[in-house]
Write a structure and sequence with these properties.
alpha/beta; six-stranded mixed beta sheet; globular; binds iron/sulfur cluster
């Protein structure tokens, strides 16, 4: 069996899952409350997780926040200092910029779901190691399975590479639609990069316009008789 799959199955077994849910979006009737409960159950497993060395240095596990039934999911890299202290993703300066981007899309943080591919802060905000990304990946995969978004926006190189398990360069992949298990994925820059390079904000806004168009066409399809 593939090592990644074995890790993921072991995690799901810890959660008490006895079968894999492979239904497509819309084929099941899971309520918001059920989705919230499933996410909370997974968050509990994450809070107790010691699968990688980051467990030793974290203050809080930063699992994810937002609408359990969101059409749009933002996925970043890893918690920073502010996030580690508060236990919530994207609450520092980069988080404020993400909030501004969400507002510009005429949405709120409560409409979307926000998470990272790594749930515990790497010391001194260093880049995540490959084995840490591998150990933590089952959490984000399960979050996506539960939420079933219509669109995922990955923020920065590590979120893109870890989710897709391919060595994409962010500059080449940015703004191009990809697909993850049937869900459209729009790679864009991380807000922390925009703080250092404000000129790139226009590229991110161009990407978000594509996301808004896709969400609006997906919701028109859903509401068609
Ligand atoms: S980063 Fe992920 S895999 Fe590592 S200890 Fe935290 S929750 Fe577990």
């Amino acid at each position: 069996m593939d090592e990644q799959l074995a890790t993921e199955l072991a995690l799901l077994k810890e959660l008490g899952f006895t079968h894999l849910d492979v239904h497509s979006r819309g084929a099941e009737s899971v309520s918001d409350e059920d989705q919230r409960a499933l996410l909370e159950q997974m968050a509990g497993v994450a809070r107790a997780c010691e699968k990688c060395r980051l467990a030793k240095t974290r203050t809080n596990v930063v699992y994810g926040v937002g609408n359990p039934n969101a059409d749009l999911m933002f996925i970043g890299e890893a918690p920073g200092r502010d996030e580690d202290l508060k236990g919530e993703p994207f609450v520092g300066r980069a988080g404020q910029l993400l909030t501004d981007i969400i507002k510009a899309m005429k949405l709120t943080r409560d409409d979307v779901y926000i998470a990272n591919v790594i749930k515990c802060r790497p010391p001194e905000n260093r880049n995540p190691e490959a084995d840490e990304l591998d150990e933590c990946r089952p959490f984000i995969r399960r979050q996506i399975e539960i939420i079933k978004p219509k669109v995922i926006v990955t923020l920065g190189k590590f979120a893109l590479q870890s989710l897709m398990q391919r060595g994409y360069a962010i500059t080449g992949a940015r703004g191009q639609w990809l697909e993850y298990n049937g869900v459209k994925v729009m790679p864009t820059y991380h807000p922390a990069y925009l703080l250092r390079n404000p000129a790139a904000k226009k590229d991110v806004w161009a990407d978000m316009k594509k996301v808004m168009a896709e969400l609006s066409s997906a919701s028109a399809e859903t509401s068609a008789p």
